[in-house]
Structures are given as C-alpha cells and as structure tokens.
C-alpha cells in the first residue's frame, strides 16, 4: 500500500479547488438553498410586522382581494 504525503499548503489548495468545482457543478442546488433561506427570512419579517399591526377579519381580507382582482 502506498502512502501519500501532502504539504499543508498543497492540501489547502486541493480543498479549495474541490470546493469550487462542487459549487460550480451544484449551482442550481445552491441557488435553490439560498432562495429558500431568503424566502424564510422574508416570511419571518412579515410575521413580525403582522404581529405589530391591527387584526382584521377574514371577510375584510377577502373583500380587499376581490377588489384587487
């Protein structure tokens, strides 16, 4: 069995290259993950904002939505 020895700097470079290749090959997956995170943050902010505003009835909401259509 052969033994491979790598200098720390060379190992670091190889790991960087592997990471870049992975990100390039999985670009769609990475995009989807970031999109989900951004959507979750926006939803959390909307919920916080909604907790600080006056409540309205379901009927009022649907009335406004019908006017917009």
Describe, in plain words, how this protein is organized in 3D.
By secondary structure, this protein is mostly helical. The chain is built from three helices and no strands. The mean pLDDT is 90. It starts with 7 loop residues before the first helix and ends with a helix.
Shape: rod-shaped
Number of helical segments with 4 or more residues: 3
Estimated structural class: mainly alpha
Q: Percent of residues in beta strands?
A: under 5%
E-strand count: 0
- Rg, Å, rounded: 25 Å
**Residue-averaged pLDDT:** 90
Distance between the termini: 72 Å
Low-confidence stretches: none
**Topology as H/E string?**
HHH
Roughly what percent helix?
over 70%
Instruction: Give the biggest beta sheet.
Output: none
């Amino acid at each position: 069995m052969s033994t491979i020895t790598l200098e720390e700097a060379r190992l670091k470079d190889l790991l960087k290259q592997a990471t870049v290749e992975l990100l390039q090959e999985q670009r769609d997956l990475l995009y989807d993950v970031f999109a989900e995170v951004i959507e979750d943050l926006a939803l959390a902010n909307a919920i916080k904002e909604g907790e600080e505003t006056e409540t309205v009835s379901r009927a009022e909401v649907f009335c406004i939505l019908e006017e917009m259509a």
